[in-house]
Design a protein that fits this description.
By secondary structure, the chain is α/β, with parallel strands linked by helices. The chain has twelve helices and 18 strands. The structure holds nicotinamide-adenine-dinucleotide (NAD) and zinc ion (2 copies).
Amino acid sequence: MKAAVFHKIGDIRAETVADPAIEQPEDVILKVTSTAICGSDLHILNGFIPQLQDMVMGHEFMGIVEEAGPGVTKLKKGDRVVVPFPIACGHCFFCSMGLSPNCENSNPEKYGPEGDMLKGKGGALFGYTELYGGYSGGQAEYVRVPYANFGPRKIADSLSDEQVLFLTDIFPTGWSAIDWAQLQGGETVAIFGSGPVGLMAQKAAWLKGAGRVIAIDPLDYRLALAKRVNNVETINPDDADPVELIRQMTNGRGADVCVDAVGLEAERSFLDKVKATINFEKGTMKVLENCVKAVRRAGTVTVVGVYGTPFDNFPLHTIFDKGLKLQFGQAPVHKYIDELIPLVDEGKVILNDILTHTLPLTEVSHGYDIFKKKEDNCVKIILKP
Ligand SMILES: NC(=O)c1ccc[n+]([C@@H]2O[C@H](COP(=O)([O-])OP(=O)(O)OC[C@H]3O[C@@H](n4cnc5c(N)ncnc54)[C@H](O)[C@@H]3O)[C@@H](O)[C@H]2O)c1
Ligand SMILES: [Zn+2]
Ligand SMILES: [Zn+2]
């Protein structure tokens, strides 16, 4: 089959690889009909999340069941499904609490309580390095989906792939960032990053009752899209200090909630890069620092942007003095997806208005290139195997 294969930093290409096969009774083999490129994939492409061997990429995908293992009771050949990006068993301590990215069974080699850089990681993720289970991903013609009684969700034929594909990751991720902040109604929510994840967090903020939604991003074309599809206020941090502006917009207090939808690959200066190298840090925590500064006292900062190393000078004193609540992590997609599918089905939210490019899987290298460089007004790419 054809698949997008990661070889080394900067090198992802469409190639012919072996077809996947059923390995466990609860596996299905999915014929992928649509798959997307994610900001999280860029961390692998750019070497921020290490991967030393070849790997089929992709954790955002949907398709049609081609073959079901003997233990699969909930799906049969021909069913059309979307698949949450965490691989989770459905019955361990964490899965039972709705915390699927911490599944105790899906990542036996590297899992542990430590959450360290190279060991004691969380549960597995599709196409997301040996650290997260070493599973082949779904930027491919076919993919093996383990724990198929727990992960895949059937989708009505009346909904197109484009309408529902972003339920695999970015919409539940944006939703997590807002749900974690437990809005009561009327809050000002400032969302750093207006990429696919930030755009989804903007939608979630309105749906959950925010009074104001502010998008911060250095890319004007992404702010323009945010304004057009999500009716948000916008700040370009290259034009003015976003922290000062957010305070000015909120009677000097700061936003009730700040969301970091950027993570470690935020824009940074040469000096930032030198400092990071000396400190063995990967990337920067500049956006997290801005969230801590721009949030009001006793407010909430939620972090869905990815971080992979410790950072010196983490602003512990500010977090304590202001009495902040913080929540971080991979999105527990399994927990939210069943309440999100009806929102799409009933037209209460539109997800594919952020889609800018649809490419054949064979053009995956080009897709990664324009998504990484933010060229051609690229926001979100769907690949068709
Ligand atoms: N927690 C999860 O479950 C989860 C799921 C999906 C993605 N993610 C992560 O979310 C992050 C965003 O993903 P994406 O697909 O939207 O990626 P993306 O790279 O398309 O978007 C990041 C955006 O941040 C902007 N940005 C850069 N520096 C900034 C700054 N200083 N202030 C404000 N904005 C800045 C960029 O211009 C870009 O628009 C990534 O770290 C990704 O790994 C996490
Ligand atoms: Zn993703
Ligand atoms: Zn589990």
